[in-house]
Specification:
- The complex is a heterodimer.
- Chain A is α+β, with helices and mostly antiparallel strands.
- Among the domains of chain A are: 104 residues, no CATH class; 119 residues, Cupredoxins -  blue copper proteins (Immunoglobulin-like, Sandwich).
- In chain A, 38% of the residues lie in helices and 17% in strands.
- Chain A contains 7 helices and 10 strands.
- A 5-stranded mixed β-sheet of chain A has the order 3-2-1-5-8. A 3-stranded mixed β-sheet of chain A has the order 4-10-9. Chain A has a two-stranded antiparallel ribbon with strand order 6-7.
- In chain A, a hairpin with an 8-residue loop joins strand 6 and strand 7.
- In chain A, helix 3 packs antiparallel against helix 5 and helix 5 runs antiparallel to helix 6.
- Chain B is an all-alpha fold.
- Chain B has one domain: Up-down Bundle (Cytochrome C Oxidase, Chain A).
């Protein structure tokens, strides 16, 4: 498993090597050689994944992103072999069989055995891929237990049967609501009922989660289709208005800050619809929760006071008392 | 099939002749009112290449905007308009109709027919395409659509896209849809009914096979999108709620309807390209195509499976896991016939005597690039992996490898191959090869790094991105590459225009090709054939050349070809 990816910009050593402009300038006779060299280079890049973390592999950091990452690596190795064989055969035949004086093309119409052979071969590769995927799938689909060092039982932890759940039921539920152009998070299982009336703690754009705790996400949208995605933690899940979708993640690195972004075109400021996930220790998370609760209550109180003043002074006419 | 007719062998001849016109009309009136499949084919090609240029300019503007982080060259609104225009133009106004252009010109010639089955419907389908494009592009003067070429509601609903641009998009789909359905029925009727004597299904040129399957897929898939956009139109203006989640409608319904059309559309775009490659490679390998039946069968299997894989566009949508599994397996299956084709093409090159023309360069370049697109396609079909890569630049890279490096390279291979037949003149090979190499490297520079962009978390369709997240270098490389690619394409355009007047005279059969279009003069006369030869194999022209050599004892020298044959 490669080390968890931190959010530092990476230097891209591979890019300079791979610059095609240099090769394009060579003389006509040597271009094919250059083509071969470039393809070999690309092939070797594919075979050295750890050297260029996100050049050829997806991000990882938390679960299930790590599981997807390891599945991707297996598929990539198989793909690299297929790539090398096909491109190799193509290049070889273009080199070897150019028209020369006296050379006569072999008049072959086909070869049934060979054709059946490569059809079956291709099918076998896909059987292998299918098998690997279904072996790997449960670890991606099913959330694991909250670790012992995770958030202790009690408080916002619940057990429920309506959504994906870790075997022992210890989890933290967060409801995510997407709207143009911000993500809102409602913490705790009470959010399933109604995030607006029940007094759940909420935050916008920045999500705070306890480390080593299985987080179950309920995802909804208020307007258009959005897609929840924090690459280092897991795959994306669409937020489709009218539907609730579920996913989960579990992060272990305390202090890590993971970036995410809406992945479905949702309007003009689609690019600005970002998300941050801040991983805290369970104790720290509890403190943050209490602080946020107090802050929300204080703000609500302030709004209520202001509202009363405005109504009393006749500057706000309302039918809601 | 039947062997009795081989006993009688008349010497086939090319008869050059003048066609007497009933009365003189002005040249432009002649073009506007024509029902000649060749003129319509040329108009298709010219029109679609104009749209190709427009779509390309839109792409370059997007690449310029993304070249550096936090760029303000293009506003978010205009960026969304550009991405919608680019996707819609390239798909509905370039790749699909350009294949219809080649099909129009060459299907009747290749099957030995004097025109399409319904010449007037043929003109209708061309003019509907023109009007579709005009309706769409006139929205530039008002408010262009900005919901992407998928136009997912609710974003495309009247509430979130109130402008008329979205309606212009809907009318574009309607008009080009009717255009394509009419054209497809015409291709189907022509190919089924008007083949030369002796041309059974086992002797149909592979390009014609691919156009036949293209037509069938269009007839199946297009009514679905036509219905869907009509529902969107009534949702927007006439009070229905098909896709409105606040009133018992479902945005997911649109996703299914759209991609039930959208995925066959991908094969509609690429299958005729496969057909072109299956014609070009045997001609320049001086070898028969390897596994003719396997390639024709693979085309049919791809078309069938193409109707069963739409769900792989919806892996992140609310669908049960078992459905995801089904679509993963069906998408895997489609890799088999596609792989079979690639193996067969390589086997055709194998032990051939390759005449390295520009057309063959593009064909081989296509195989090299398409293989990468096919492999990333299999990677994306693994749905847990797709959860990471869907809607990122990895997907953008994947489908540009399949459609730009794939379909567009086949169009260029076809252009260099058939240009002498259409115009009577050869294109400049040196300039063509320069164009190929610049396009090839420009393409890979633009799109290879986009895999890395997607893997490092950049979603598609964002108008800008912050610095310091590891995307800046890749984006800059991609932008530079896109201009190199654009320059390479420009060289071919220059070549096309320059060769119209200055190209070497081609003669009827400059490549010593296999199919019947080369039996006519270049360009072919108005009614194509005076005598339609009896077809005795998949390669009727080769039979004809051999027979003439046998009967007259003279080696057939055919026009300007000798400069390419080093042997």
């Amino acid at each position: 498993m490669p080390p968890p990816c931190a959010l530092t910009p990476r230097t891209l050593r591979s890019d300079a090597k791979n610059d095609p402009r240099r090769r394009g300038k060579r003389r006509t006779g040597r271009r094919r050689l250059a083509l071969a060299a470039a393809l070999i280079l690309l092939g070797s890049l594919l075979l050295a994944p750890d050297a260029f973390a996100n050049f050829i592999t997806p991000k990882s950091g938390g679960q299930p992103a790590n599981e997807i990452h390891s599945l991707y690596l297996i598929v990539l190795y198989i793909a690299a072999v297929v790539f090398a064989i096909v491109e190799g055969a193509l290049l070889y035949s273009v080199y070897k069989f150019r028209a020369k004086k006296g050379a006569v093309a072999a008049q072959i119409h086909g070869n049934t055995r060979l054709e059946i052979g490569w059809t079956v071969g291709a099918a076998l590769i896909l059987v292998v891929l299918t098998t690997i995927t279904f072996i790997k799938l449960p670890s991606i689909l099913n959330p694991p237990n909250t670790s012992a060092s995770g958030l202790a039982n009690g408080g916002v932890l619940t057990a429920s049967t309506t959504e994906p759940s870790p075997p022992n039921g210890k989890k933290l539920v967060i409801c995510i609501t997407g709207r143009q152009f911000i993500w809102a998070y409602y913490y705790g299982s009470a959010c399933e009922n109604d995030p607006y009336t029940s007094k759940v703690v909420y935050s916008y754009q920045e999500m705070y989660v306890p480390a080593n705790t299985t987080i179950i996400l309920h995802i909804q949208s208020l307007d258009v289709i959005h897609s929840w995605w924090v690459p280092s933690l897991g795959g994306k899940v669409d937020a489709v208005p009218g539907y609730t979708t579920y996913t989960w993640f579990k992060a272990s690195k305390v202090g890590a800050l993971y970036h995410g972004q809406c992945a479905e075109l949702c309007g003009r400021l689609h690019a600005a619809m970002t998300a941050l996930v801040q991983v805290l220790t369970p104790a720290h998370f509890q403190r943050w929760l209490a602080y946020q609760k107090a802050a929300i209550a204080a703000d609500d109180q302030q709004v209520l006071t202001l509202r009363k003043e405005l109504v009393n002074s006749g500057n706000l006419i309302t039918n809601v008392s | 099939m039947s062997t009795s007719d081989t006993a009688l062998r008349p010497v086939p001849q090319v008869i050059a002749h003048e066609v007497t016109k009933p009365r003189e009309t002005k040249k432009w009136v002649d073009w506007v009112t024509t029902t000649d499949h060749k003129k319509i084919g040329i108009m298709y090609l010219v029109l679609t290449f104009v749209f190709f240029i427009l779509g390309g300019i839109e792409a370059l503007m997007m690449r310029l905007q993304l070249s550096v982080p936090n760029n303000t060259l293009v506003t978010p609104e205009h960026y969304n308009e550009l991405l919608t225009l680019h996707g819609t133009t390239m798909i509905f106004l370039f790749v699909v109709p350009v294949m219809a252009g080649f099909g129009n010109y060459f299907v009747p010639l290749m099957i030995g027919a004097r025109d399409m089955a319904f010449p007037r419907l043929n003109a209708l389908s061309f003019w509907l395409l023109v009007f579709g494009g005009v309706v769409f592009y006139f929205s530039l003067f008002f408010t262009p659509p900005e919901a992407g070429w998928w136009s997912y509601p609710p974003l495309s609903s009247i509430l979130y896209s109130p402008s008329g641009g979205q309606d212009a998009w809907i009318f574009l789909i309607h008009l080009t849809g009717i255009s394509s359905i009419v054209g497809a029925i015409n291709f189907y009727a022509t190919i089924v009914n008007m083949r030369a004597p002796g041309m059974g299904w086992g002797r149909l040129p592979l390009f014609v096979w691919s156009i036949l399957i293209y037509a069938i897929l269009l007839i199946i898939a297009l009514p679905v999108i036509a219905a869907a956009v009509t529902m969107l139109l009534t949702d927007r203006h006439f009070g229905t709620h098909f896709f409105d989640p606040t009133d018992h409608g479902s945005p997911l319904l649109w996703e299914h309807l759209f991609w039930f059309f959208g995925h066959p559309e991908v094969y509609i775009m690429i299958l005729p390209g496969f057909g072109i490659i299956s014609e070009v490679i045997p001609v320049f390998s001086r070898k028969p195509i390897f596994g003719y039946k396997a390639i024709a069968a693979a085309t049919c299997v791809i078309a069938f499976l193409a109707l069963l894989v739409w769900g792989h566009h919806l892996f992140a949508s609310p669908l049960p896991t078992v459905v995801l599994g089904f679509f993963m397996l069906s998408s895997f299956l489609i890799a088999i016939p596609t792989g079979v084709k690639i193996f067969n093409w390589i086997a055709t090159l194998w032990r051939g005597s390759l005449v390295m023309t520009t057309s063959l360069y593009f064909a081989v370049g296509f195989i090299a690039i398409f293989t990468i697109g096919g492999i990333t396609g299999v990677i994306l079909a693994v749905f847990p992996i797709d959860w990471q890569l869907n809607d990122t630049y990895f997907v953008v890279a994947h489908f540009h490898y399949v459609l730009m490096g794939g379909a567009v390279f086949t169009v260029f291979a076809g252009l260099y191959y058939w240009y002498p037949k259409i115009t009577g003149r050869l294109m400049n090979e040196t300039l063509g090869k320069w164009s190929f190499w610049i396009m090839f490297w420009g393409f890979n520079m633009t799109f290879f790094v986009q895999h890395a962009l997607g893997l490092s978390g950049m979603p598609r369709r964002v108008y800008t991105y912050p610095p310091g997240v590891g995307w800046s270098t890749y984006n800059l490389i991609s932008t530079i590459g896109s201009f190199i690619l654009g320059f390479g394409i420009l060289l071919t355009f220059i070549n096309v225009l320059r060769s119209l007047k200055r190209g070497a005279i081609a003669g009827p059969d400059p490549w010593k090709a296999n199919t019947l279009e080369w039996f006519t003069t270049s360009p072919p006369p108005a009614n194509n054939f005076d005598v339609i030869p009896r077809v005795r194999s998949v390669e009727p022209m080769r039979d004809i050349r051999r027979q003439i050599e046998r009967d007259t004892g003279e080696t057939q020298k055919t026009g300007g070809s000798e400069q390419f044959a080093r042997a």
